[in-house]
Amino acid sequence: MDKGVLATALGSPAPFGQSQFAFMRGNAFEAKVKADGGAELLRLLYEGLGGSSPAPGPDVATPDLSAAGPEGRAARTALALREATAAGGWALLDHPMLALEVAGSPAYLEPDAVVVHPDGRWTVVEIKSFPMIDASADASKVGAAARQAAVYVLALERVAAVTEGADVGQRVLLVCPKDFSNLPTASVVDVRKQRAVTRRQLARLTRIEDIAAGLPEGTTFDPACPSEELDAAVAAVPPAYAPECLAACELAFHCRAKSRAEGAVETLGRSVRGELGGLTTVAGVLAAAAGKEGDPADPTVAALRRAAALRAEALESAAVLRADAREAASVAGAGTPEGAAACR
User: Fold this and answer.
1) pTM of the prediction?
2) Which of 100, 101, 239, 312 has the CB geometry, 3.0–4.6 Å to 255, for a possible disulfide?
3) Which candidate, 244, 245, 247, places its Cα nearest to that of 16?
């Protein structure tokens, strides 16, 4: 079920998405990077990650990865990777299809490119349309690209595990426009940390069949159902909303409305939720800060009460300063001719 369709049926459509202009610009930049058999891409990769291998020449392999359906394309990609590794030369796989198990079900992923080195190393290439200015790009965008590439690395490792001589590189190539031009430049990004975090997160995910087993009998997510029935079905799966969801999930606005109605602290962000310990609602946090609820021995409660006391002290000081300023202004006004006339 498409979450965007489900969100629309619930009355909370996600009013966002990549603009057509940004989409076309990204496609045009990627086409430029991959032109002439990927010559520019391979040049950038060799400069950053070439190692001791000979430079790629005009004989770089570019296998055909077309097949029926995502499962067929993933199988064809795995075969192409094995053949390229056995051949011992450079190979460029354009938009390969990779498979990764997520919560017990296969998820199909499509990186921009994967390059096979003569020594059997596989490198993920991510092509983004945000600029690198003075060899530096926006940290948040680079971080997002690194997390995305780390997922591709994990998927590639499944194929490499059954491919003799293969090794998946833990450093990926990020290709972006240089400064304010449309000329490509590249940066090598180490994704070992992102890979480890993603692997742990995937291991902790609840399997889909376990979630389905806990749903009430007859639960359906058919958008054609009455809104009350559909809302109850969605509510049967506990949401894990955080502001970060707004950038990635079509159901985020629906989950945010529910989370706000319940006063859940997750609406303030995962980092805030982690700092508040056993306090799970905004009302509970405010009550603890006011000294109405909570164990004073709890470090979280003690910190909240200390913060509330500092806030009250700051507000009181600000009120005194404002009163002094008004009094000073009044005295100064009385000393002027206009002020004296006003007094008379």
Assistant:
1) 0.71
2) 239
3) 247
Hunting for tokens 């606005």 — which residue is that? 253
Largest CA distance in the chain: 102
Q: Return the axis-axis angle of helices 139-160 and 69-87, rounded to nearest 10°.
A: 80
Residue 150 CA: distances (Å) to CA of 9, 47, 62, 108, 230? 34, 21, 23, 14, 35
Could you give the CA distance from residue 214 to residue 14 in angstroms, rounded to a whole number? Answer: 28
143, 167, 180, 161: which is closest to 49 by C-alpha? 167
Neighbours of 292 (CB within 10 A): 9
DSSP 245: G
Q: Which tokens sit at 35?
A: 């032109």
CB contact at 8 A, 188 and 123: no
Alpha carbons 73 and 83: distance in angstroms, whole number: 15
Q: How far is CA 12 from CA 15, 225, 245, 254, in A?
A: 9, 16, 14, 5
CA separation, residue 50 to residues 53, 59, 304, 319 (Å): 6, 16, 53, 65
Between the alpha carbon of residue 124 and those of residues 4, 44, 121, 154, 299, the distances in Å are 29, 13, 10, 11, 45
